[in-house]
Predict the structure.
Amino acid sequence: MGVAMAKVGTDEQLADLTRHFSKRKPKPFIRVVRGDIPVGRAHYATRCASCHGTKGEGKPEIQSPPVNVQEDWFLLDQLRKYANGQRTVHPRDAGGVMMKAALAGLSPDDLRSVVAYIARDLTVTPPLQKVGPPKK
């Protein structure tokens, strides 16, 4: 995203891009992440909702992005990267520091459960198909 933003030369161009993308409807997606919804709901309520909102809508006033418009695989990828240090956090990046702290102590199963909860109960983009229980 930084490379693309570097090509935006003026505030007017940025406003034009903002208008363009704000009119686009999210595309349906296939849910691929499975998890324990009640566990995910509990973790979301205690670790995520204060910054990302109770409906996953985000909080612009603290530059916290919405999570209810992201595909589940992308959310899981980002959470894993914060949790394992692949997504680095600068000490002056308050949001990154808060993300790392919010994820501390969560297992890989917990991360999947949080994402599964977001995808099933909070996402505003309808899935192409629902994911059933894992095949045995």
Observations:
- The chain has a mean pLDDT of 87.
